Each structure stands twice: as structure tokens, then as C-alpha cells.
Write a sequence for this structure.
């Protein structure tokens, strides 16, 4: 079973006459609110200092920034 990740992978079409060197693998991020739907009751909340660090009151909506190399 694969672990849940917010980063998705896309393999674009590479044409034989493309003028630039191809980028064979592209990635994009999907925010967690896409998979949550309506806010469920009794959703756990972060403490106020932790909410300020993460930028959200709810841990289920936290999406870390992962820079691409």
C-alpha cells in the first residue's frame, strides 16, 4: 500500500519535433482540502502557537512546502 502524498507525478507527451529539451517528469501539489469535503464535526485542532507555525488551525489541512531540487 502506498503512503498518502500531496505530490502527484505527470509524464507529459514528448513530440519528435519539440524545439526544446524535454522535461520527462513533472510534479504538482494537491492541497488537502480537495479530499476533505465538508468539515467533519469534532475535527482536532492545533494549539495556537502550532497553528501560527503551520498556518492553519486544523492539522488535517496542513500542507508543507517541499521545494523541488
Amino acid at each position: 500500500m502506498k503512503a498518502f502524498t500531496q505530490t502527484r507525478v505527470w509524464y507529459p507527451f514528448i513530440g519528435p519535433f519539440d524545439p526544446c529539451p524535454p522535461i520527462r517528469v513533472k510534479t504538482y501539489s494537491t492541497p488537502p482540502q480537495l479530499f476533505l469535503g465538508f468539515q467533519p464535526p469534532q475535527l482536532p485542532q492545533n494549539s495556537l502557537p502550532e497553528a501560527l507555525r503551520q498556518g492553519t488551525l486544523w492539522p488535517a489541512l496542513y500542507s508543507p512546502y517541499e521545494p523541488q531540487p
Notes: The first strand starts at residue 7 and ends at 10. The two ends are 26 Å apart (CA to CA).
